[in-house]
User: Which sequence fits this backbone?
């Protein structure tokens, strides 16, 4: 230490540095006097002080090597040689690091002070750091209670604005609406949505005046963090929405968003158009065909009032897509017609505004319907980049990734959608399905029961439990659940078909209702199960003559020949199908069918082709397994592959695992793809075990079927 002090004295470090401190003191005194005189911002004092103090480490370092004199900088010679060492690259590098370090520290300190000053100017006394929020539907405070569309619309718009903020998870409006309608208090609601804060409010519009009261609450202790009342002209509503969102973000995060920097990019100059748009949104939320048609009219009226209103075009495109025919839609428009119309409206949006997240999500949905996978994923990713809390984009993205066999990514996307929108029927059901195919039956059952608890008037929870029971081989239980789903939705053809499919899976085709025995969807399976093979093949041949270009009919004919007919004919028919399917159809998982059946035929007639098909199925099965798919269907596929590859012991073990986990298909004993293992004693024992399980399920099923038969 004494040597260091002696060297400092020799180098006159303090004599150089102390005057700098005096200079700092003098400048700060002058600035503190001048600032109020010139009405400068108090931040000027802070800026000058931070700048001068940041220079201290730099000045201290330089004073070790130089004397600061009236004649300039004079280098200090080395103690031993009394020669001046050049200020080389190493010293310059150290000086640069010190300067950068001081600069970064000064910048961060100043920006923190600047943020706190800006917040204090707006009356935000403290920041409650939180990374999640739910915006409750605003209360309609009007005397006539006729402004509910505006109250909910405001909540949706503010939710969308907040969702664009990085690092802030915003619960979906649909889930908050469901829980609010159940009468939950804000703290309980926040717990259900897994958010830390809740924004609530009320709105009324007397004449052309807009009065909004908002309140931000800490969901942990119900303490009010911030509240404000806005009284403006109604035509200032978009600015008010932006101010509410901006103030909320500033309250919850360290950063500061300046006024005017979080604007509603989908605003309109016509308040009448906005009111009609919100009424269209109100109809859209009802999710019925009639309401969707009305929403379409209202969005078109809004565009008529303001042809530049991009949000109305987005609403119209969304409604058009929902009006397309399909199981999950409202069945009015042809799918391709709906796609083209929606695409035309979205083009009008992108010409005017390229920052609307939901517009990109809708573009992704159109591309998805056209099987343009990469383009659809790019559109969904763009939507998510613009709004990281856009739950529907994650859910739609999940569906595309799943079809592309990217199972791990698809599940992650679905979980994110569910985290943002945990009361979404689609999210709950799909998550249950994903747990099912991964063998997590308890978690799958929990999801479906949650659906029943939250939406007792909807059939999807029972449908999910029915599907789960079927996958586990509990056919009697599956029938009971399908019957409950049918009672809730008697006109749903899909539930009726699934109910009858269970009867056929039990090899009880003779118990089908009489009208179903002649139904094209069931007739061939009924004839197969009742041993009427001549009639079966005559019907199949007639169908193929009537539809000669339908490859699926030829596949069905070949499959029936393979099961109970002439396998030579079956192999020829399968071979003719080799080039009749696109890849997505050929390798359809989880059965990898029809590729696996064609491979069976080709291994005898065109071995190289058969090996290629078999290798691809094996690859897809491995991908599914690596993605935690644990369904008995996948195990059965692997057993078939191993059998065709001649791996007898492996095939038997896989078949054993498949049966143990619920595989109960009656046609297993007839499956030609298992011929290589059927003669093995262990395989014969497994087939007997499967038959006994089927017999048990039939006995349990008959009491379930009896009441239905009487009805």
Assistant:
């Amino acid at each position: 230490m004494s040597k260091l002090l002696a060297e400092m004295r020799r180098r006159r470090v303090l004599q150089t540095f102390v005057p700098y401190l005096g200079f700092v003191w003098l400048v700060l005194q002058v600035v503190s006097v001048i600032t109020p005189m010139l009405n400068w911002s108090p931040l000027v004092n802070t800026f000058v002080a931070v700048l001068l103090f940041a220079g201290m480490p730099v000045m201290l370092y330089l004073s070790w090597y130089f004397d600061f004199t009236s004649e300039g900088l004079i280098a200090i010679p080395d103690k031993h040689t009394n020669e001046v060492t050049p200020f080389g690259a190493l010293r310059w590098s150290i000086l640069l690091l010190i300067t950068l370090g001081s600069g970064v520290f000064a910048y961060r300190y100043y920006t923190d002070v600047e943020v706190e000053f800006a917040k204090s100017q707006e009356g935000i006394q403290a920041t409650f750091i939180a990374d999640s929020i739910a915006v409750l539907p605003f209360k309609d405070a009007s005397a006539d209670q006729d402004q509910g569309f505006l109250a909910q619309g405001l909540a949706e718009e503010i939710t969308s604005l907040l969702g664009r903020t990085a690092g802030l998870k915003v619960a979906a409006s649909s889930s908050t609406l469901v829980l609010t309608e159940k009468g939950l208090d804000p703290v309980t609601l926040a717990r259900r949505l897994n958010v830390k804060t809740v924004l609530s409010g009320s709105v009324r519009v007397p004449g052309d005046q807009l009065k909004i009261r908002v309140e931000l609450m800490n969901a942990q202790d119900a303490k009010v963090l911030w509240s404000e009342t806005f009284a403006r002209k109604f035509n200032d509503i978009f600015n008010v929405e932006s101010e509410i969102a901006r103030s909320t973000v500033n309250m919850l995060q360290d950063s500061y968003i300046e006024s005017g920097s979080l604007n509603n990019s989908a605003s309109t100059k016509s308040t009448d158009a906005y009111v009609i748009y919100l009424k269209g949104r109100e109809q859209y939320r009802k999710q019925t065909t009639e309401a969707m048609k009305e929403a379409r009219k209202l969005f078109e009226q809004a565009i008529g009032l303001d042809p530049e209103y991009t949000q109305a075009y987005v609403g119209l495109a969304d409604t058009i897509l929902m009006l397309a025919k399909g199981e999950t839609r409202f069945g009015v428009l042809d799918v391709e017609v709906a796609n083209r119309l929606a695409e035309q409206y979205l083009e009008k949006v992108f010409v005017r505004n390229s920052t609307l997240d939901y517009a990109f999500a809708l573009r992704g949905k159109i591309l998805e319907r056209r099987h343009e996978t990469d383009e659809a994923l790019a559109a969904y990713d763009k939507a998510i980049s613009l709004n990281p809390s856009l739950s529907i984009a994650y859910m739609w993205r999940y569906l595309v990734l799943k079809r592309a066999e990217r199972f791990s990514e698809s599940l992650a996307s679905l979980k994110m959608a569910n985290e943002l929108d945990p009361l979404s029927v689609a999210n709950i059901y799909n998550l249950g399905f994903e747990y099912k195919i991964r063998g997590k039956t308890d978690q799958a059952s929990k999801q479906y029961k949650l659906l029943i608890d939250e939406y007792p008037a909807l059939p999807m929870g029972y449908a999910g439990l029915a599907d789960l029971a079927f996958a586990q081989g509990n056919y009697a239980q599956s029938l009971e659940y399908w019957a409950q789903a049918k009672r809730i939705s008697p006109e749903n053809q899909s539930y009726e078909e699934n109910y009858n499919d269970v009867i056929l899976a039990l090899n009880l085709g003779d118990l089908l209702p009489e009208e179903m025995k002649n139904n094209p969807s069931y007739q061939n399976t009924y004839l197969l199960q009742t041993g009427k093979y001549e009639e079966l093949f005559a019907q199949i041949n007639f169908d193929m003559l009537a539809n000669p270009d339908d490859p699926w009919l030829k596949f069905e004919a070949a499959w029936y020949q393979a099961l109970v007919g002439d396998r030579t004919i079956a192999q020829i028919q399968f071979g003719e199908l080799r080039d009749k399917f696109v890849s997505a159809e050929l390798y359809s998982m989880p059965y990898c069918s029809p590729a696996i059946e064609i491979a069976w035929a080709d291994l005898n007639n065109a071995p190289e082709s058969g090996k290629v098909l078999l290798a691809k199925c094996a690859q897809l099965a491995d991908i599914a397994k690596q993605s935690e798919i644990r369904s008995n269907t996948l195990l059965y596929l692997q057993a078939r592959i191993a059998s065709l590859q001649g791996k007898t012991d492996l095939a038997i073990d896989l078949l054993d695992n498949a049966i143990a986990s619920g595989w109960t298909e009656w046609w297993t004993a007839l499956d030609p793809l298992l011929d290589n293992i059927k003669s093995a004693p262990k395989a014969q024992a497994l087939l007997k075990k499967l038959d006994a399980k089927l017999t048990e399920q039939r006995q349990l099923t008959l009491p379930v079927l009896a009441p239905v038969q009487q009805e």
